Amino acid sequence: MSKAAKPAKNGGARRRWIKWLFLGPLLVFIAVQLYFFLMVCWYAQFNPSSTNMMDDQLSLMREKKPTAVLQHQWVPYERISDNLKRAVIASEDANFSEHDGVDWEALQKAYERNNRRHKVVGGGSTITQQLAKNLFLTGSRSYLRKGQEMIIAFMLETVMSKQRILEIYLNVAEFGRGIFGAEAAARYYYRSTAANLGVAQAAKLAVMLPNPRYYDRNRSSSYLARRTTLIVNRMSSADLP
């Protein structure tokens, strides 16, 4: 009797182990998404004092200089020049006011480009996706991170207005080593304020966004100059939320 019961008992334990093998990761995934969603709801009402990208860069800076600090000052949407808003939309996400967080056409083009080069070289990210990455993720390039970025982007678009998304993005985007947000960028590059950025100044800052630390070191880059001129010409057609 006991010998017959023992295999049945072992079989039940094995089934439970298999169940948790699949159920465990699913519960962890759901818990992580719930955390992100609650944080998105919080940021819809309250300004983030820091982001994951800011924390990562500060840690790297302090490895060389323990007293290093970031340059960052939050300013409300109304105190950021419309020139910068239009320039960023024209340069980074022309369909910002229309999409639901993901620009599927841009994503398809990026996927095809990555396949041609056999590595992830670009993600076709919208401003909303970039904000998701800046707030919660890392700068690593992988399809797994891209998937999580898209999920958070949909959360942001569901909970926040387009104006709030753009406001947060412009306040936390990196514009150089240790330089975060429009106000710090305006002061660092032009000794001005985010509210007083001119058309060409705003366009140049927007063009720097994909690789700000490189362009900080190479401000006279011919590509930077050409791209800035192009964005200046596109700014008038950029729709503000």
TrEMBL record:
Function recorded in the entry: Peptidoglycan polymerase that catalyzes glycan chain elongation from lipid-linked precursors.
Domain Glycosyl transferase family, chain residue ranges per copy: 70-235
Molecular function terms from GO: glycosyltransferase activity
Topology with respect to the bilayer: Single-pass membrane protein
Family: Belongs to the glycosyltransferase 51 family.
SUPFAM superfamilies attached to this UniProt entry: Lysozyme-like (SSF53955)
Name under which the protein is recorded: Biosynthetic peptidoglycan transglycosylase
Compartment list: Cell inner membrane
Keyword line: Cell inner membrane, Cell membrane, Cell shape, Cell wall biogenesis/degradation, Glycosyltransferase, Membrane, Peptidoglycan synthesis, Transferase, Transmembrane, Transmembrane helix
Gene name as annotated: mtgA
Reaction equations catalysed: [GlcNAc-(1->4)-Mur2Ac(oyl-L-Ala-gamma-D-Glu-L-Lys-D-Ala-D-Ala)](n)-di-trans,octa-cis-undecaprenyl diphosphate + beta-D-GlcNAc-(1->4)-Mur2Ac(oyl-L-Ala-gamma-D-Glu-L-Lys-D-Ala-D-Ala)-di-trans,octa-cis-undecaprenyl diphosphate = [GlcNAc-(1->4)-Mur2Ac(oyl-L-Ala-gamma-D-Glu-L-Lys-D-Ala-D-Ala)](n+1)-di-trans,octa-cis-undecaprenyl diphosphate + di-trans,octa-cis-undecaprenyl diphosphate + H(+)
Domain of life: Bacteria
Organism: Massilia rubra
Protein EC: 2.4.99.28
Gene3D superfamilies linked: Biosynthetic peptidoglycan transglycosylase-like
Annotated TM spans: 20-45
